[in-house]
Design a protein that fits this description.
By secondary structure, the protein is an alpha/beta fold. It is built from 11 helices and 12 strands. Helix content is 40%, strand content 21%. The longest helix has 16 residues. The mean pLDDT is 96. The structure holds 3-isopropylmalic acid (IPM) and manganese (II) ion.
């Protein structure tokens, strides 16, 4: 039976890198049936649809969603990001954003290999807040951060379960408990309670500012890193930068309960300045497709794709997709 994959190319370089990723998946021999969903800035400007509930319910029927990129300079910031990407993450309950980082950081000789587990449905991303007296000298803006015990615990638990499958068995909590004393306390207590159930796993805690230094100067200390939505967003761009560049960074937006499809997308954005010029590196999209196959139970194909990616140049053009595909098919 072929896996049914919903493809949302999205904006900018999204469609071109996604097309390369699908080429590689097909070359791997895993049977897939795809359906394209025309969503993103162009569609919004054309007929106003961002992601209707009807389309969302269509997406629910698929085994997985492959997404290219979201962000169009012709649309005000936040409209498509919130209406398309965040709506998918929230409504499909994709509460884990798993972002693996392997490579040799600049200035280092020894490679690192760690995974960031970013909480993906809460924090400042929920859109709680508002504006008072907009445009006046007395304007006030608030933006709340929502942290629920359930939301934090399921994410932390996922991180520990993942660490159990890895060699080092080490989990680091990253937060800012010295300033964000309410949410930080909830995260820390939850982390410590879950950790007590996993005596085999070693734990550590870093403030997020210190973690930024360690990501650059000592990335080897990390195995599994668990953190909130916004810290995870920022840290994973840094993770990409120290692991061969953002052009290689892949991610999996997971609903571990498997009650619906999970969504797979490169960490990078839509890069509208280079869209259509053929210079976008599709590797992050290809590696995201490998995460998708892994999650669907096709670990062997996923490992072959990862190995092929490691053999091709890390900088270049969409033509890299063909080079990866020819290696995957053998
Ligand atoms: C990411 C992106 C998104 C985020 C944007 C496009 C809303 O930066 O997936 O990391 O902030 O989560
Ligand atoms: Mn980001």
């Amino acid at each position: 039976m072929a896996y049914r994959i919903a493809v949302v190319g999205g904006d900018g370089i999204g469609p071109e890198v996604t097309a390369e990723a699908l080429k590689v998946v097909r070359a791997s021999g895993v049977a897939i049936e795809t359906e394209d969903f025309d969503l993103g800035g162009a569609r919004y400007l054309n007929d106003g649809e961002i992601l209707s509930d009807e389309t969302l319910n269509e997406l629910r029927k698929f085994d997985a969603i492959l997404l290219g990129a979201v962000g169009d300079p012709r649309v005000p910031p936040g409209v498509i990001e919130r209406g398309l990407l965040l709506k998918m993450r929230f409504e499909l309950d994709l509460y884990v954003n798993q972002r693996p980082f392997a490579g040799t950081a600049p200035g280092h000789t020894r490679p690192h290999d760690f995974v960031v587990i970013r909480e993906n449905t809460e924090g400042p991303y929920v859109g709680e807040g508002g504006v008072l007296r907009k445009g006046t000298p007395n304007e006030v803006a608030t933006q709340g951060s929502v942290n629920s015990r359930m939301g934090v615990e399921r994410c932390v638990r996922y991180a520990f379960e993942l660490a159990m499958q890895r060699e080092r068995k080490h989990v680091t909590l990253v937060h800012k408990t010295n300033v964000l004393t309410f949410s930080g306390d909830l995260w820390e207590r939850t982390f410590n309670q879950v950790a007590a159930e996993y005596p085999q796993i070693e734990t550590a805690y870093n403030h997020v500012d210190a973690a930024c230094i360690y990501f650059v100067q000592d990335p080897h200390r990390y195995d599994v890193v668990v953190t909130d939505n916004l810290f995870g967003d920022i840290l994973t761009d840094l993770g990409g930068a120290v692991s061969g560049g953002i052009g290689l960074a892949s991610s999996a937006n997971l609903n571990p309960s498997r009650s619906g499809p999970s969504m797979f997308e490169p960490v990078h954005g839509s890069a509208p300045d280079i869209a259509g010029t053929g210079v976008a590196n599709p590797t992050a999209a290809v590696l995201s497709a490998a995460l998708m196959l892994d999650f669907l139970g096709e670990a062997d194909a996923a490992r072959r794709i990862e190995a092929a990616c490691a053999e091709v140049p890390t900088e270049g053009t969409v033509a890299i997709g063909d080079m990866i595909a020819s290696r995957v098919s053998g």
